[in-house]
Amino acid sequence: MALKADIAANYEFVLKNLLAGGLAGMCSKTTVAPLDRIKILLQAHSIHYKHLGVFSGLRHIVFKESFFALYKGNGAQMVRIFPYAATQFTAFEIYKKYLAKFDLHLRFVQHSDKFVAGACAGLTAVTLTYPLDTIRARLAFQVTGEHKYTGILHTASEIFRNEGGARALYRGFVPTLMGMVPYAGFSFYSFEMLKFFCMKYIPRYTCNKCERNTGGLVLNVPAKLLCGGFAGAVAQSISYPLDVTRRRMQLAMMNPETAKFGMGMFRTLTLIYNENGIIRGLYRGMSINYLRAIPMVAVSFSTYEILKQALQLDTGMKI
To answer: Where mainly found (predicted)?
Structure first.
């Protein structure tokens, strides 16, 4: 009976985390969908937008296409982000739970198991959902009047049939994996460390009482948003060049002039650096990335924690 009770409890734990993580991902991505689209257009040097900045680009999308064009590709994004975020958050909780049994604390790094758990969770999620990200990027890159794809299934079938099968859907996967380790690792590590700091040293300003939680505290909403936003800024700063490389590889076959960026990660990195340098190439679109990443990660972590509380899951920690 005890074994059956444990299995039922674990099953409920996983289902609740999947739901909370998936909904948190959908909320965060919808919040920044317009910035996501202009980021893709700027990163990949769309001929219609490469001469524009962030806000002028957003205005141009509304003027040239429509207001709803700001959300182009967001349907595919929702199809991708629910399983992605659900898997990532749930995997983090599971990895964190099991890694806590081992002594992974490095001499100069407290809570290093959170970094390992976050990195592994990111790798797990991106491996399972990467083709949907490629499809979403293709749809978002299209400009009204120049549509090549008509929807998610059509995009997937066209890429599969004309660009080399399943391998084409995973174009840019290697730089994504390499970028995911620091991105997911530092996202979760930074959030968990800031959460620990708030609960241990400044609970009067950042926490509310919650007897159900470990430590008897829960972060208030402003603290959740601040911790999440800072975590997003740190993670994006470290992993951004690999994100640019991934996008250029994903979109390489949409234009004969950019096909050279589909030849491999290191070749693409080298080409971007040789043609545009570090600031205008590898960190192109970084300003917009801060504008979208900080609120996106803030909303993501905050919504996840709020939903966990609503589902009566523990959001505290040992302090």
So the answer is: mitochondrion
- For residue 225, the tally of other CB atoms under 10 A from its CB is 18
Q: How far apart are CA 239 and CA 317, in angstroms?
A: 28
Burial string for 24-33 (b: 16+ CB within 10 Å, else e) reads bbbbbbbbbb
Q: What is the CATH number of the domain that holds 218?
A: 1.50.40.10
Q: Judge if pTM exceeds 0.85.
A: no
pLDDT at 3 (0 to 100)? 46
Return the closest-CA partner of residue 264 out of 278, 254, 252.
Answer: 252
Domain interval for residue 6: 2-310
User: For residue 231, which of 295, 175, 317 has the smallest C-alpha distance?
Assistant: 295
Report, as ranges of residue numbers, the positions in the chain whose pLDDT lies below 50.
Answer: 1-3, 107-108
Look at the chain and report how many structural domains it folds into.
1
pLDDT digits (tens, 9 = 90+) for 281-307: 888 878 777 888 899 999 999 999 999
Closest CA to 292 of 5, 1, 38: 38
Per-residue pLDDT, 105: 53
- CA neighbor of 238 nearest in space, from 178, 318, 315, 303: 178
Question: Do the Cβ atoms of 205 and 226 come closer than 8 Å?
Answer: no
Give CA–CA dist 218/307, Å, rounded. Answer: 13
Helix (H) or strand (E) segment spanning residue 219: strand 217-219
With respect to residue 234, please indicate whether it lies within any of the assigned structural domains: yes
Token representation of residue 79:
């199809």
Cα distances (angstroms) measured from residue 317 to each of 108, 202, 212:
21, 15, 11
pLDDT tens per residue across span 212-260: 888 899 999 999 999 999 999 999 988 888 888 877 887 777 776 667 7
